[in-house]
Amino acid sequence: MFRDRRHAGELLAGLLGSYRGQARTVVLALPRGGVPVGAVVACTLGVPFDVFPVRKIGAPHQPELAIGAVAAGGMLVLNEHAAASMRISHETLDAAVAREREELLRRERLYRGERPPLELEGWTAILIDDGLATGYTMLAAVRAVRTHAPARAVVAVPVAPPSTIERLSGEADEIVCVHSTENMFAVGEFYEDFRQVSDEEVRAAMGN
Asked: Are 45 and 11 in the same domain?
């Protein structure tokens, strides 16, 4: 059990010690929940910090159930089998994707302002969230980061089920996880304090 996201970041940073002070290494946090975790990791490792916006696409009648995700740069990942089994129409799915892409752009402008994203080509990118369930948001993030030709793409999270780690193992060069268990209903159950992270907190972490 993590006290809060800061505590999770401290524990995660302890597992990422080999990256401490490494040149051309950057921590990319998935907003909003991954930002407090990533900020602690970046500070501890002494490497640059940035956000990498990703938005979950939830099932129409079960918004917490991810059936896909969109990421910066237009990346789209969909569980088409799940969408078909739930009989989600193409029109409904297209509307959901468009809605999340619009929110993604809003957040990107809000969090980064006029600053361009950090250069990733040839860098080691450490992608951080506060935990993974289905892993679709992280999968979209990894694939989007890959389009920028990083030297390595590392996934680092406090908690995730083994099945999700296995799904991502073919996409990331390394996966670091503090606690892995299949017996999880939601990421929040592993935190004593899992209050929602605000846009203002993200902007503050970004120095805005």
From this structure: yes
Q: Give me the amino acid identity at 65.
A: L
Stated pTM of the model: 0.92
Task: Check: CB of residue 48 under 8 Å from CB of residue 26.
Answer: yes
Listed in order, strand segments (DSSP E) in 72-123 are 75-78
Domain that holds residue 76: 56-111
Over residues 125-142, the mean pLDDT reads 95
Instruction: For 60-79, write each residue's pLDDT tens digit.
Output: 877 777 788 999 888 999 88
Of 25, 33, 27, 28, nearest in space to 197 by CA? 33
Here the CATH number for the domain that contains residue 37 is 3.40.50.2020
Shared domain for 70 and 162, answered yes or no, is no
Distance in angstroms (rounded) separating the CA atoms of residues 162 and 192:
22
